[in-house]
Amino acid sequence: MKYPEIDESKLQEVMNIIDKAAQLMEEKDYEGDADAKKELDALEKQLCEITGKKKLCITEYNAYWSYTSLETVPRHALHQPPVKTGMTDGQLTELIRRICELDFDVPQNALEATNDYFLEVLEIETGLDNVSDYIYWPDAVGLDMDAGLDEITAKILADKK
Predict the structure, then answer these.
(1) Rounded to whole angstroms, what are the CA distances from 141 to 85, 104, 127?
(2) Please, are residues 74 and 18 in contact by the beta-carbon 8 Å criterion?
(3) How many CA atoms lie within 13 A of 126 on its CB side?
(4) Closest of 79, 20, 9 to residue 51, by C-alpha
(5) pLDDT tens-digit profile of 39-72?
(6) C-alpha–C-alpha distance, residues 25 and 139, integer Å
(7) Does the model's pTM come out above 0.85?
(8) Residue 105 — very low, low, confident or very high, per pLDDT cuts 50/70/90?
(9) Which residue blocks in the chain are alpha helix, DSSP H?
(10) What letters, b where the CB count within 10 A reaches 16 and e where it falls short, cover 97-134?
(11) Pick from 146, 85, 136: which is nearest to 156 by CA?
């Protein structure tokens, strides 16, 4: 299973841009203030250039601290989007196990972003846009809230498109 690679040399710069944008959105009315909007647009453009992504919405990082850390957010931005490779059921089973057990050989500060990346891979490979529900809220997909790994895996494989 290939881990998402990022250019670590860009990490600090991306952190600075995201943090500056988040502070700007917190302190100013970026939707009503033309100067704030212009500054935010410039930060978004910088972020797109650094990450190599054409479509990044800087406002997605508003109040990032309420759901993650500044160490995780830039890793998300630097990951290239996963593409469908046609994983076998065996490969999907292994991926589900790794996601559920957070079994990735990456530094602790990269664990959350890596797990999120592989959730995206699982979503693309299965065609299930709510695949995280199967893992974190199994009762939302008809399983018992305390469903085990085998039950979750069987349900994902049965429901994949």
Answers:
(1) 25, 26, 15
(2) yes
(3) 27
(4) 79
(5) 999 999 999 999 999 888 999 999 888 989 898 9
(6) 36
(7) no
(8) confident
(9) 11-27, 34-51, 73-78, 89-101, 108-126, 131-136, 149-159
(10) ebbbeeebeeeeebebbbbbbbbbbbbbbbebeebbeb
(11) 136
Give me 153's structure tokens.
């895996």
Which backbone phi and psi does 81 adopt, to 5 degrees? Answer: -60, 140
> Are the C-beta atoms of 90 and 1 separated by less than 8 Å?
no
**What does the alpha-carbon distance between residue 69 and residue 60 come to, in Å, rounded to a whole number?**
14
Measured between alpha carbons, how far apart are the two ends of the chain, in Å? 22
N residues, the chain: 161
